[in-house]
Design goal:
The structure holds two protein chains of two kinds. Chain A is an all-beta fold. Chain A is built from no helices and eleven strands. In chain B, a hairpin with a 2-residue loop joins strand 7 and strand 8. Classes of the chains: A mainly beta, B mainly beta.
Chain lengths: ~120, ~110
Amino acid sequence: QLQLQESGPGLVKPSETLSLTCSVSGGSISSSIYHWAWIRQAPGTGLEWIGSIYYTGSAYYNPSLRSRVTISADTSKNFFSLRLTSVAAADTAVYYCARHRPPFDHWGQGTLVTVSS
Amino acid sequence: ENVLTQSPGTLSLSPGERATLSCRASQSVISNYLAWYQQKPGQAPRLLIYGASSRATGIPDRFSGSGSGTDFTLTISRLEPEDFAVYYCQQYGSSPFTFGPGTKVDIK
């Protein structure tokens, strides 16, 4: 059974870098069928796709965040990661990782990241 | 980007009633790549429908999707207590992949 688990700091200071990891079990991120994505949800609001990565390492991003986002993957350890630079209060959200078939058919439970000094 | 709007914002119904949720896209959704998700408080979204009308694995047949182009509908034929939640549509035909703002289905 596929499981995704986000991990990383729950609190990040303004202007610093947010870093999260998604560990995948029960399936391989090296599969050529799937992409792997990050999605966020600010408190009480809707969902925003951040970006996705393919097992080849090719990543693509939402233009609204492209200048600040990097998604990478480690196929040997079966996880992928998110880096978001120069964070501000507006980046406070629950961050989800998901398998992207497309669409997003399996999700992690999400992790709340708060941007505050 | 393809902007999605959903209506109504909130739908107040009783168990056993039929729910009809609407999703409208600002541009035609390529290949009708339109999905519906259900989200309950404190949980991640769950995929219900993909390709506008195909049910995801394990989704009961009381959930159905229809539509094409710019207008799509999610129908829940008879609401069960566990169906009261927020529903989001999402298009994955063109990047950036976008979500609608959601429709909350609550108990009347």
